Input
Amino acid sequence: MADPTVLHVGQHVDVPAWLLAPEPHAPVYRPSGRRRRRGFLDATADRSAQVLRQVVLCDETAARPGLLQRLDPRTAVVAMLVVLVALALVHHPVVLVVAWAAVAGLAAASRVPVGLARAWVVVPAVTCLVAAPVTLSVVRPGDVVVVLWTWHGTGHGLTAQGLTAAAVLVARAGCSVAVVLLVTATTSWTGLFAALGALGVPRVFAQVLAMAHRYLVLLVTVAADMVTSRQVRTITGVRHDRTGRAVLGASVGALVAKAYQLTDEVHQAMVARGYRGHTRTLRTCRFGAADLVAALVVPAAAAALLIWDGTLG
Output
C-alpha cells in the first residue's frame, strides 16, 4: 500500500484555495525615511578590513615585476633620501609640479595600483586647508590680488606672495609624500628594515619599526575578529548610550589583554625560528645594473631640479 504522504512523479496535487488566497490584513512594510546610525562595531570592522587590504595590496605591489621593484632596498632608501633633500631645497611650484609628474610616471612604470596612489591627492587637499591662512594679507602682507574685505579704506584679501608660498607648501608636501609612498609600495617592509640596518641605522631603531609594523597588522586582525564575533552574537544594533560605551570599554580591555599575551608568544616564536636581533630576508641584497643606473640618474635628476629652480628664481 502506497504512503499517502509521499508524492510520486506525475501525481496531481490540488493546493487548497485558502493557501493561495492573499491575506486580507497583510502588513505593508515601507521605509521610515530615517537613516540608520552607523555603530562603532560596523565602523571598526570596515576600518580594520581597509587596513588589512592596504597591507596586502602593498605586499602584492612589491612582488610585481615593475621598474622600481628591481632595485636593491638599500639603493631605494638612499635614492628616496636624496630626492627628499632636493625637494626640500626647491622653492618654485612649477619645478615641484614637474617632479610630481615624474614620480607619477615612475608609479605607472612600477605598476602601482590606484588604491595606493589615492593618498597623493588626499595629502595635498589636506595641506591646502593648512596653508589657506598664509594666503591672506593679515597673515602674510604683500600685493593684494583678490580683495575680500576693506578695513579703514585698505583692501585686504589674497596676496601674490601668500598664494606662492601656499602653492610651494602644497606641492612640496604632495611630492614628498608621493616619493615616500612610491618607495614603500615597491619595496617590501622586510627589505626596508634590512636596508636601514645595512645603512648604519641603530639596530634598536630598526627592530622597533619592524615590531611596530608586525604588531599593527596583528592587532588589527585581532580587533577585526573580536568585532566580527560580537556582531554575529548581537541580535539588535548597539545603542549609543551607556550600554554601548560599556561594550566599547570591555572590547578595548580585552584587546589590550590579548595584545599583552601575544607579545610573549610572538617573541618566543621568533626566537624559536632563529631570530637574534638581525632582520633576515629571503631575497639576497645585491647591487646590480639597475642599482648602478639609479645611482647615476637620481643624483643627476636632483641636481637638474635644483639648477632649474635657481634659474627660475
